[in-house]
Amino acid sequence: MASGNDGDATNGSQTTGSSPAPMLPNHLVGQNVAAPLIVPVNHVEKPEKFNGLNFKRWQQKMLFYLTTLNLARFLTENAPTLSVGESDVQALSAVSVWKHSDYLCRNYIMNSLHDSLYSVYWEFKTAKEVWESLDRKYNSEDAMAKKFLVGRFLDFKMVDSRTVMSQGQEFQVLLHEIQAEGMALSESFQVAVVIEKLPPSWKDFKNYLKHKRKEMTIEDLVVKLRIVEDNKTPERISSFLLLLRLPKRKKDHEANVVNEMARDVADINLFVVISEVNLIGSNPKEWWLDIGATRHVCSNRDLFTILESVTGERIYMGNSTHSALEGQGKVVLKMTLGKELTLNNVLYVLEIRKNLVSGSLLNKHGFKMVFESDKVILSKYGMYVGKGYMCDGLFKLNVMTTINKNSGSSMYLIESPDLFMAWKTRSC
User: Fold this and answer.
1) Any residues with CB less than 8 A from the CB of 288 and at least 6 apart, and which?
2) Fewest 10 Å CB contacts: which of 106, 172, 252, 286?
3) Neighbour-count burial of 382, counting CB atoms closer than 10 A to its CB (0-12 exposed, 13-18 middle, 19+ buried)
4) Are 52 and 75 in contact (CB under 8 A)?
């Protein structure tokens, strides 16, 4: 690749890796004269050609590429000089070796420039001159780009027409670009900003996150957002109702509710219910499977086999209304084929007009739910439990009756904190 003079001076010194470096005269020892250089045959992939955009990224890739070729030193070294009338063969050879290596480095850089830039920087004679000229021009432009990054950061807003996760990933890339420019952002600040950028339909969940006392990392927030978004359907993205069960506390004035919510939010238990379950006129004895609900909920006192009253506790709904939590207890559902499903810790809420079986709790305790052709089949450990069918957008369970607490039938129980399943024995 070198010109004639360069090639003649280096033929003997660069053919093998074992060739010793030429001994330098004393007046050249202090100068950065390159030893004979062997360029590796197998090295990393060559960076894409620089077209004037994303200079810092290209610069880092190019620096690494030249490092693998043992040429990175020529980006900062000045060319060695010879004294007037120098005739020492070793000195002439060493300078020629340096020039040849610099020639390689310069042309690796030039060949990584777009054609429109190649002709601009061809006039520079050394690799250092090319490198420094590019750095001066495009690093100053990158400094101007900081202002545009900040503008994009301030203007960024999530919208309901796209998924929150995809928009969140875009925003994380923007945050990373800002940090790469030396503008440090604490993680707590990043979390707060992502929460604030959530779309309008996430208003209730946004308020819930704002009131949390416990610090979250970006990873924690992403997990929470993914869980909530997975529970939402595109058609009902604004139809979720957040129910926050507040701990018992004496209150003198209703006007203090908001302030006390903020103080108690660290102890809040969150569970999600689709707002359609609050429709008036539903059959109070029917049960619906809801994969979005994280607690079992019942509005019919007669369906409980065991019910413990709860006083002084309220349920705060996402639409800024309050409902009393009347109690908590156990409900036994008689499924098809004699199977009985017992739900523990069922919330007794009068204002919820559809009784809900939490799909997430079923899944948590080993139940398998198969959804196909507008039907759902429940099983556990490969054994059939029950079924349901699609009705008005939800899956209605095929429940025959509800067992009262005086039932004397013997049952085999598989217990768990929130539910157990029983197989009722039949007399011959």
Assistant:
1) 277, 354, 355, 356, 357, 394, 395, 396, 397
2) 252
3) exposed
4) no
Question: Which distant-in-sequence residues (6+ apart) come within 8 Å of 343 by Cβ?
Answer: 296, 330, 331, 332, 333, 357, 418, 419
Cα 169 from Cα 237, distance rounded (Å): 19
What span, in angstroms and rounded, lies between the C-alpha atoms of 99 and 34?
A: 8
* The two structure tokens encoding residue 229: 């978004």
Look at residue 260 and give its three-state secondary structure: helix
**With the CA atoms of 374, 376, 382 and 384 taken in that order, what torsion angle do they form, in degrees rounded to the nearest 10?**
-110
Q: Which two tokens stand for residue 349?
A: 């809420």
d(CA 192, CA 218): 10
Residues of the chain where predicted confidence (pLDDT) is lower than 50: 1-24, 27, 29, 41, 234-251, 253-255, 257-258, 261-262, 264-280, 318-320, 405-428
The residue type found at 419 is L
Q: Quick one: which of 342, 348, 357 has its CA closest to 290?
A: 357
What is the structure's pLDDT at 171? 84
Q: What is the pLDDT of residues 6-64, one digit of tens each?
A: 434 334 333 333 334 444 455 454 555 555 555 554 556 888 899 888 788 898 899 99
143 by Cβ neighbours in 10 Å (0-12 / 13-18 / 19+) ranks as: exposed
pTM, entire model:
0.36
The answer to whether the beta carbons of residues 142 and 57 sit under 8 Å apart is no
Residues in the chain: 428
- String of b and e for 120-136 (b: at least 16 CB within 10 Å)? ebeebebbbebbeebee
Q: Are 404 and 296 in contact (CB under 8 A)?
A: no
The one-letter code for the residue type at 147 is K
Q: Which residues does 194 contact at the CB level (< 8 Å), separation at least 6? A: 168, 171, 218, 221
Query: How far is Cα 200 from Cα 204, in angstroms, rounded to an integer?
Result: 9
Domain ranges of the chain: 4-138, 156-236, 279-424
Block residue for tokens 């899956």: 395
Please give the structure tokens belonging to residue 147: 């202002």
Q: Which tokens sit at 79?
A: 């060319």
User: CA-CA distances (angstroms) from residue 117 to 52, 89, 102, 135, 398?
Assistant: 8, 38, 20, 14, 72
For the chain, the farthest-separated pair of C-alpha atoms sits apart, in whole angstroms, at 120
Q: What is the chain's mean pLDDT, rounded? A: 73
